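This entry is set out below.
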Amino acid sequence: MVYERIAGEIKQRIARGELRPGDRVPSTREITARWGVAMATATKVLASLREEGLVHAVAGVGTVVSSPTPVNPAVKDDLTADAVVRAALAIADAEGLGALSMRRVAAGLGVAAMSLYRHVPGKDELVLRMIDSVFVASPPPEATGGWRERLEAVARVQWDMFSRHPWLAGAISMTRPTVLPNAVAHTEWIMQALDGHGLSVEEALQTAVTLFGFVRGIAVNLEHEAEQRQHTGITNDEWMDRQSAALASLASSGRFPMFARLLGTEVDMELRTLFEFGLARMLDGIGEWISGRPALDG
């Protein structure tokens, strides 16, 4: 495989000491230019190096060579499932879920990879425990105010939770959800906030899931944006600046008059802004939907 050959060359440079711990390795953009491969292949190169614990991402710097971690027998004796989950969270929060592997967690803990399986059956179960741990640390807020204030408050709790853990949104399925009590607590909390406002229990559940799906839908972009910043070193604003010529061409074509009116204006398209805008509109819609509906019993 091409990506394995490129990864092998970088490994050899690390082994020979040409790339030392803390040194920056080629970014995906540099790999595509130097070896003439697609961006997807370049991404697999860095992912395979991360999988082996040879490199890791550093915010604002890029991907750098990791320091070798010797196996520590004392740590092995004190190893717990909670320690494994905490180590996995640290990796996923810093580098994304793609960088997570049992081998990488073991290297961070200074233990042999096989020792982890005494505490966690495998990566899939580890990710579930990570998700549950995040929800434990982000319980629904106190029940104060009316239904709108309560839904707004819990949506912000969820947004902050996704922002602290950019990998989380992509790890949660909306179509095949795993039943985790601490996640279900958010659904129950929203349904209770809507109780007595004319909705059936089915409608209350659909509202809770729709609201969570909206928050997750915006948040799923957080990890991608973080990865792009790490891999390219380009911010959102810098990327948009590079699109100015193409945007001007579209605007002058006459095909998009509404779009043309945006030129010269500053529109805030940050994810947090889109979340706040969408949340307000969603709550407006729920309010219009339930206004005037008679209360339902049971």
In short: Residues 201-232 form the longest helix (32 residues). The CA atoms of residues 199 and 296 lie 7 Å apart. Residues 1-67 form a domain with the Arc Repressor Mutant, subunit A fold (CATH 1.10.10.10). The mean pLDDT is 88.
